[in-house]
Amino acid sequence: MTLACQTLAFADGSALLITFTDGTTASYVLSEKPRVTFGQGTLLITSAGASAEYERATISRFTFVDAAELGIGPLTEGSMVFEYDGTTVRMAGAPIEVFTTGGTLIVRGTGSVSLSGQPSGIYVVRSGRHTVKVVKK
Question: 18 - beta bridge partners?
Answer without folding.
Answer: 26, 62
